[in-house]
Amino acid sequence: xxxxxxxxxxxxxxxxxxxxxxxxxxxxxxxxxxxxxxxxxxxxxxxxxxxxxxxxxxxxxxxxxxxxxxxxxxxxxxxxxxxxxxxxxxxxxxxxxxxxxxxxxxxxxxxxxxxxxxxxxxxxxxxxxxxxxxxxxxxxxxxxxxxxxxxxxxxxxxxxxxxxxxxxxxxxxxxxxxxxxxxxxxxxxxxxxxxxxxxxxxxxxxxxxxxxxxxxxxxxxxxxxxxxxxxxxxxxxxxxxxxxxxxxxxxxxxxxxxxxxxxxxxxxxxxxxxxxxxxxxxxxxxxxxxxxxxxxxxxxxxxxxxxxxxxxxxxxxxxxxxxxxxxxxxxxxxxxxxxxxxxxxxxxxxxxxxxxxxxxxxxxxxxxxxxxxxxxxxxxxxxxxxxxxxxxxxxxxxxxxxxxxxxxxxxxxxxxxxxxxxxxxxxxxxxxxxxxxxxxxxxxxxxxxxxxxxxxxxxxxxxxxxxxxxxxxxxxxxxxxxxxxxxxxxxxxxxxxxxxxxxxxxxxxxxxxxxxxxxxxxxxxxxxxxxxxxxxxxxxxxxxxxxxxxxxxxxxxxxxxxxxxxxxxxxxxxxxxxxxxxxxxxxxxxxxxxxxxxxxxxxxxxxxxxxxxxxxxxxxxxxxxxxxxxxxxxxxxxxxxxxxxxxxxxxxxxxxxxxxxxxxxxxxxxxxxxxxxxxxxxxxxxxxxxxxxxxxxxxxxxxxxxxxxxxxxxxxxxxxxx
Length: 722
What we know:
Elements: E1 22-24, E2 33-35, E3 60-63, E4 70-73, H1 75-82, E5 95-101, E6 104-109, E7 115-118, H2 125-132, H3 134-138, H4 143-153, H5 155-159, H6 162-171, E8 178-182, E9 185-190, E10 193-198, E11 216-219, E12 222-225, E13 234-235, E14 248-251, E15 254-257, E16 262-264, E17 283-286, E18 289-292, E19 298-300, H7 308-317, E20 338-341, E21 344-347, E22 353-355, H8 363-372, E23 393-396, E24 399-402, E25 407-409, E26 420-421, E27 426-430, E28 437-439, E29 445-448, E30 453-456, E31 483-487, E32 490-495, E33 501-503, E34 507-510, E35 518-524, E36 529-535, E37 538-544, E38 549-551, E39 560-562, E40 571-574, E41 579-582, E42 591-593, E43 613-615, E44 621-623, E45 628-629, E46 634-637, E47 643-653, E48 655-662, E49 671-679, E50 688-693, E51 699-706, E52 712-721
Parallel strand pairs: 1-2, 41-42
Antiparallel strand pairs: 3-4, 5-6, 6-7, 8-9, 9-10, 11-12, 12-13, 14-15, 15-16, 17-18, 18-19, 20-21, 21-22, 23-24, 24-25, 26-27, 27-28, 29-30, 31-32, 32-33, 34-35, 35-36, 36-37, 37-38, 39-40, 40-41, 43-44, 45-46, 46-47, 47-52, 48-51, 49-52, 50-51
């Protein structure tokens, strides 16, 4: 049996944060930690106290000899590499023997073909040791230690050699049953055989597996290891690049770091609608309304904004100081406040006081005065002056003048009234005495002299039209009065004060105008109501309570449908096919019932002409043209659908000769049974029998048999089916 022991390393990871890479004996480190030997050929890295690989450890370290990069590999991945993805085999084979011929190592496997391992790439002392001491090595338990050293010292070369990997994959296709450790002896069992490995050389002399574990410590620029009272400090200051004191600057969208590179900053704002301008809003003011665009809303600015010129003009025209020189060193001692107590108004700092006798009007009083006296309550000033429109009237003799305007001569209006003339719609007037003007009211307008009113009422004396124009006309029945339309004193239309509407006599709905084609009418038919609905002016629906209800009186292709609670076509008349459906919109027969049907109180009859009804599998109902034939060869169709048929074969020899029988009618579905009997007027001796064969829906074959003699007779047959 052959075993390969791999020395696996478990590593603990320490993370030390630096802004730059750290190099040990390396001026230009390319990785977070970059270690180079002081002298070429020296081992650049040493870690004491490394623990042995144990079950449950998750990875081992491997180094690329070309780049020096250290990486870890999962044990399962390592097995996959050397097994070509198949893992360790389970064929339970033993290694019978090993031979070494030059640099070719041959393994002989139980029940299998031998595999060769080319050791040509391995040229160090370990290989020479194997070659020179092959016989001793392969017969000694120390072979395991030699192979371990071989793999450890030449791992990079072996794992990069395809031939070695393939041969190794074939060689280790075995299963390990169990592993035990007694003291420093490791025993590996496979198929009942054990191999012993002496691990004493790997013993930890001080029996403490932890005290060799050390950490790296960085104090200032000095790197040391722990667990050493006098550690050798490595000064890392020569490897500092002294580029930490850097400054950032931004020019446009280019960000630069001193003594370094620069990057172009792109607009990383995620504008969801891909439009960088539609969020920009503008503010505007129209009159006193301030508006923010793009749905930003608006508000009313009631403050009056004076221009600079207006402020200056107001100050100059009202005696305010526009400039001064402060001579007493105080800019506040001239400030005064005004106050009012009762009707006394006082100015502080010796400003005096006075009595205010003016009456303070409320806002409502001012508004009422303005409204009652014809003053303008609102206007738009367009010329910048609120006083230049004010004018005064004056009368001098018969001349009436308006300030800033013209004058008129009123002499023609001087004197007494000499007469009054009645205008249109008025009567009366005159030139002397007490004059009276009267209203000439007619055509639905009357004068109520007692109440001194002109009011609606009376007869029309001409055709009259009231034009609404853009204004509606409303008759508001808000009391107990009704609105009634009469013809010669007979009421034909009325809207009562309770909201009910009444029609008297016949009523017609017409197309477009009252002279248009009839659409619907509700008329009096002998004190009974009659509703008609018209199709092109001709009645199509005529519901006459006095005689009949007719739908589609013109016989047009207009279907009739009645809905129930859960069926939209409880009753459906298809006018185009002349069919009626119950529960179906497309009836296929004159009466098509979709569902159960029941007919009650059906009368009975003894007439032989009566025929039963039959239904097929699709529900179609049929009547047989004849259901009973009383002849010698006849039939009867029962109400259940069962059919009985009978007949006679006359004067046939009773010698087993078959006679063909054709039924009077064919059974629609099947013939269930045929019975036959022999009939003779004279006695017959011996045994007689009948035979029936080839029964079908349309007939059969029948034979008679007499065992003592050849005779003749009649054969009566009876068939039943459906």
